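Example 4.3 (complexes with small molecules)
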Amino acid sequence: MRAQIRVQSRQRECLEDITGQVREAVRRSGIAEGLCHLYVPHTTAGIVINENADPDVPRDILERLRALVPPDASYRHYEGNADAHIKASLVGQWALVPVAAGELALGRWQGIFLAEFDGPRERTVVVTVLPSAAWPQTGGEGP
Ligand code: ZN
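Answer. The structure with zinc ion bound is encoded below.
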C-alpha cells in the first residue's frame, strides 16, 4: 500500500510532526504486521524520528544543525540554499518503522517529523506499508 502525505511547513527551518498522519495511513492500509517505509522526495527536506514530548528537543536539533551548517557561510551553490541541501543530507530522506498489531511500533517518546530546511512550502512524504507476508520466508530444514 502506498499513500502520500502533504505537509505545509510553517517556517524556513522546522520539524513538522507528521506522526498522526503516518499512523492514519498505516491504519488505512489494513496491514497488521510489516514495515512502514517513509520517503521524502525533496532535496532540502528530510525525515527525523525523535522525541515529540518536549518541544525543546526539536528546537535543540534545529539550533545545533544551524550552528553546524550556517546559512551565511560561503557556498558554491547558486540558489543560496546550500545549507538546506547539506542539512537535508545529514538527516536523510527515509525511515523504516515496524508495524505491529496494525499500529506503528514507535517508542513511547518518539514522533516522526518532516524536517524542513528551506520552507515554508508544501512537501510530500511517500508512505509505503509492506506486509510481512510479502517477505521471503526462511527457516525450517535446509537442503
Ligand atoms: Zn538549491
